[in-house]
Each structure stands twice: as C-alpha cells, then as structure tokens.
Write a structure and sequence with these properties.
- With 61 residues, this protein is α/β, with parallel strands linked by helices.
- The protein has one domain: HAD superfamily/HAD-like (Rossmann fold, 3-Layer(aba) Sandwich), CATH 3.40.50.1000.
- Helices cover 48% and strands 16% of the residues.
- A three-stranded parallel sheet has the order 1-2-3.
C-alpha cells in the first residue's frame, strides 16, 4: 500500500497494487494510482488506514 502526491512518487505507485493518490496530487499521480483518498491536509493516509482497520475488525467478528 502506497500513497503519493507528486511525480517523484510515480515509480512507487507503479510498483504497488494498492496505490493511492492524494486529493491534492499532481494529475500524473492521479492517473497512475488505482485509488484515491483525501488530501494531505485532511489526513488522507490516516483515513484509509482507519477504514482498513475497521474492515478487519468487522471481518474478525
């Protein structure tokens, strides 16, 4: 799982299936990533991680 917002993140995004572009990401990153999340200022990484943790908890119940 990777998160990116600028062109220097493109190689990393290309390597991962769970690739996320931040809402404020450069258009190249948005095109390359498979998923998107909130901006850096809106804690987009934490938002996705919290969703993942909650889904894991629900699956374990």
């Amino acid at each position: 799982m990777v998160f990116g917002d600028f062109n220097n993140d493109l190689e990393m995004i290309d390597q991962a299936f769970f690739s996320y572009a931040m809402e404020n990401a450069h258009d190249n990153v948005k095109k390359a990533a498979k998923f998107s999340t909130k901006s850096n200022n809106e804690a987009g990484v934490e938002f996705v991680l919290k969703q993942l943790i909650e889904a894991k908890k629900m699956a374990g119940s």
